[in-house]
Design brief:
The protein has two domains: 3-357, no CATH class; 361-490, no CATH class. It is mostly helical and 493 residues long. Helix 4 crosses helix 5 and helix 5 runs parallel beside helix 8 (132-146). Strands 2-1-3-5-4 form a five-stranded mixed β-sheet. Helices cover 60% and strands 6% of the residues.
């Protein structure tokens, strides 16, 4: 890394480290339950694994990265809850900053590339989170910078293939994005098709797959091919649809515009220019085609989420930054500053609101719960009456305390008229509580729920007093989520 690149890296590192402290909100459960919670159980031998890990549809590669960090903390007696929370985020922030530098190199070391990546609200919002999709996006940027683009003067090494193979075993659906790019490589490479396939793609792919199978089988306790299990459950059996179904156009009408925000404008203009002057922008045309191909493929899947589009962000920002770079050569300083200001403010607003205001209560509540648990471990028992996985758990408590929370296991056994535990509870909260906590039974020491639920669970709260009311959001996204998270303590605790 040359001195110029190092200075750029420091800029990106400051931005990513800042996001650790400025992004204080809950996004999706997988940020914790598919990474940190698994790592915590691996290292400290207590915690909870979701159903995916028992069925082997997830690779242990990502949790093991965080488990290694946790183990270092444990050996050095530095395994405080704050270190377990912030350590993984610092690790991801550093990788994201490095991937930003790779993006900067790929773009031709243009200032607009720095600005577009550093100011992107969605990348700021997710760049330091412990999501598999965040890691996927960072590795995608690194791989794109090593991809042998025609006319870019990049050495045709196989390093990008190693990253693609790793991405595939971590998240098999990434293949959708890389299919058109790899076909492009196979078509325009100076090497023969046979040499590329038999000498690079196939051996690298098999080697990474074999290593991942060995690793996952050891961690799982029996032979497992997580890639196959992932595809079987999510594509063949469509289990993912259990967690929400969106219309076919959702990515185009909602998802894609939302993650781009104000950046959609330069991207749209750049796309029209690329299509109009196809022969002058062959690489950009392939990138645009890859974006369209990937979104089209994802649109056929019933379950859709904003985070699934994260790996496309480097491609989109590349197209936008290239256009802005060309445009700024002829634009006046005034127009450049106006456009820069509009893009910056247009990204700061959603980054601030979604990063610091919206849905923060389910994270903020973990600190008082941790303090309560550490004070009286044996007597403390926490009952979370919330939509399943609304909060992290042992990775943030770091106390081996008794917990109970509503589960949302999908219909794995094809049971007719199946209803998961969370839905059973919300259909009739009082009845569920009577069945699970009979009159003469032991009640939990603390109940954690949203304020909107309180009127419906008076059957259990009569023996409790409210000790915490924590702001969550002013725009609840469902009827089951309230403006506040409340904590009730049993009066005889």
């Amino acid at each position: 890394m040359c001195f110029k690149d190092f200075k750029v890296f420091l800029v990106f590192l400051v931005v990513r480290i800042a996001s650790i402290f400025l992004v204080q909100t809950f996004f999706v459960p997988d940020e914790y339950w598919q990474s940190l919670e698994v790592a915590h159980k691996l290292v400290f031998n207590y915690g909870y694994l979701t159903w995916e890990w028992y069925l082997g549809i997830r690779s242990y590669i990502v949790p093991l990265i965080y488990a290694a960090l946790y183990k270092v903390f444990q050996v050095l007696s530095l395994d405080s809850a704050s270190n377990l929370i912030f350590g993984p985020r610092v690790l991801q922030a550093c990788l994201s900053a490095y991937s930003d530098v790779c993006f900067y190199r790929w773009s031709g070391t243009k200032k607009w590339a720095v600005f577009c990546v550093a100011s992107s609200w969605f990348w700021f919002f997710t760049g330091s989170r412990t999501l598999i999709n965040t890691l996927e996006c960072a590795l995608t940027s690194i791989s794109l910078s090593k991809f042998p683009w025609p006319g870019k003067g990049v050495d045709e090494s196989s390093s990008f293939i190693w990253i693609i193979a790793l991405l595939f075993v971590i998240r098999p659906t990434c293949a959708l994005m890389w299919v058109p790019l790899c076909i492009y490589h196979l078509t325009f490479s100076k090497k023969s098709l046979l040499n590329l396939v038999m000498g690079h793609y196939l051996p690298i792919g098999l080697m990474v797959l074999i290593l991942s199978v060995l690793l996952d089988s050891i961690c799982h306790g029996s032979f497992i091919v997580s890639v196959f299990e992932f595809l079987k459950f999510n594509l063949l059996r469509d289990i993912a649809s259990f967690y929400g179904v969106q219309p076919w156009h959702w990515y185009l009408s909602v998802g894609f515009p939302a993650i781009l925000g104000i950046n959609l404008i330069p991207f749209a203009v750049a796309s029209m220019i690329i299509i109009k002057n196809r022969t002058a922008h062959p690489n950009e045309l392939v990138i645009l085609g890859t974006i369209i191909f990937t979104i089209t493929g994802y649109s056929f899947l019933a379950h859709k989420e904003f985070r699934f589009l994260l790996p496309l962000l480097p491609l989109v920002l590349y197209v936008s930054s290239r256009f802005l770079s060309v445009w700024s050569r002829k634009a006046s300083n005034f127009h450049i500053w106006v456009v820069t200001g509009i893009i910056f403010v247009g990204n700061v607003v959603p980054a601030w609101y979604l990063g610091m205001v919206h849905q923060r209560g389910t994270l903020d509540v973990m600190e008082p719960l941790r303090e309560i648990s550490m004070t009286n471990v044996k007597e403390t028992s926490l009952l979370f009456l919330m939509p399943c996985h609304s909060t992290p758990m042992y990775s943030h408590l770091h106390v081996n305390v008794t917990t109970r929370y509503l589960t949302c296991l999908p219909n794995l056994n094809s049971i007719e008229n199946y209803i998961d535990e969370a839905d059973l509870f919300y259909n009739d909260p009082s009845q569920w509580l009577r069945l699970n906590f009979p009159v003469n039974g032991t009640l939990p020491s603390h109940v954690i729920c949203f304020d909107v639920l309180v009127p419906y669970i008076s059957v259990i709260l009569s023996g409790y007093q409210k000790i915490h009311q924590i702001y969550h959001t002013n725009l609840p996204i469902s009827k089951r989520i309230g403006r506040y998270v409340v904590v009730y303590e049993r009066t005889d605790f």
